[in-house]
Amino acid sequence: DAKTTQPNSMESNEEEPVHLPCNHSTISGTDYIHWYRQLPSQGPEYVIHGLTSNVNNRMASLAIAEDRKSSTLILHRATLRDAAVYYCILRDRPTGANNLFFGTGTRLTVIP
Amino acid sequence: EPEVTQTPSHQVTQMGQEVILRCVPISNHLYFYWYRQILGQKVEFLVSFYNNEISEKSEIFDDQFSVERPDGSNFTLKIRSTKLEDSAMYFCASKTGGAGQETQYFGPGTRLLVL
Hints:
The structure holds two protein chains of two kinds.
Chain A: E1 9-13, E2 18-23, E3 32-38, E4 44-50, E5 55-56, E6 61-64, E7 70-75, E8 84-91, E9 106-111
Parallel strand pairs in A: 1-9
Antiparallel strand pairs in A: 2-7, 3-4, 3-8, 5-6, 6-7, 8-9
Chain B: E1 5-7, E2 10-13, E3 19-24, E4 31-37, E5 44-50, E6 53-57, E7 65-68, E8 75-79, E9 88-95, E10 105-106, E11 110-114
Parallel strand pairs in B: 2-11
Antiparallel strand pairs in B: 1-3, 3-8, 4-5, 4-9, 5-6, 7-8, 9-10, 9-11
């Protein structure tokens, strides 16, 4: 699987937007970009995923660079509940079990 | 909203003992997974299960581990003879299996402590 690189940690003030970057320079044409997060003492939780176009859902937005070598997860208004480790994961086109391989992610701290 | 459940939430066992970790995936899901997370480390894939057989397993999933779906609802992970290094949080996950349906839903985990 192609590798992703994320900053170890980031901080944000509450109610401000947060932009979490992910670099994936060796991404292949069929790799989807997935984001999961892990709140303290909980299991990972799906956030969003995309292939080429930017994506929005109720939790976040995903901005994908035109060359697909990087992407940014955008939380529009950070809340204290958004404090978590955020993982950017590449997975090939959705077939079969498609297991997830987690890196170390970005630990987001939200400051009240 | 349906969710994956796991029991027990905590398990303490002696080294060499067998443990069974239980999971109830979301009812219409077809793919099932176990992951583990050693304290302070990243989440690691163990095994995936589909159509009553293992789809894929990692190097961690050696002969000491087994999985089973004994009935239509439970999905279990058995560790035959626990070692100290098996101490970790174990997460079960499931997903539907429909075309393009890639979201995995994780349970809250079972914290296993091997003494």
